[in-house]
C-alpha cells in the first residue's frame, strides 16, 4: 500500500512519535522510509542574520540535523527496514509538501502535529498545516501521546 514513506524530523517529541508510527507502517507494508531533516533557511532571517548567517550558526544547525538523522537511521535499521536519509537546506514547508515527494516518489508523509521551534511557528506559520493543505501525497499527522491528556 505504502512503498515509500517520508518522515520529516526536527528533534521534537512529536517527530519522534511520528517516526515510531512510520516504522510500524513500514514493517506492516514492507515500505522504505525516507527520513529528512531540513535546515530552514528562513531561520537565518528569523534570528536576525539575514542570508549572511555566521558560519558556526549554520554548522551547528547542520550538525544537529545530522545527529537527528543518524539516531533515526539507527532505530530504523535495527528493525530491518530500508532507510534513506535526506539532509537538505530550504523551506521545510515546500520541501515536505512538494519537492521531496516528487523527487523520491513518496506515497505517504508521516509527521508530528507540531515541531520543536515555537518562534518559527509563530513567525512562519505551521509547517504541518501547510503540508496538509498543499501536499502531493497522503499525509498522516501523528499526535504526541501526551497531547491526549490536554
TrEMBL record:
InterPro entries: Rossmann-like_a/b/a_fold, Universal_stress_UspA, UspA. It comes from the Bacteria. Pfam families: Usp. Coiled coil: none annotated. Residues 1-142 form the UspA domain. PANTHER family: STRESS RESPONSE PROTEIN NHAX, UNIVERSAL STRESS PROTEIN UP12. Belongs to the universal stress protein A family. This is Universal stress protein.
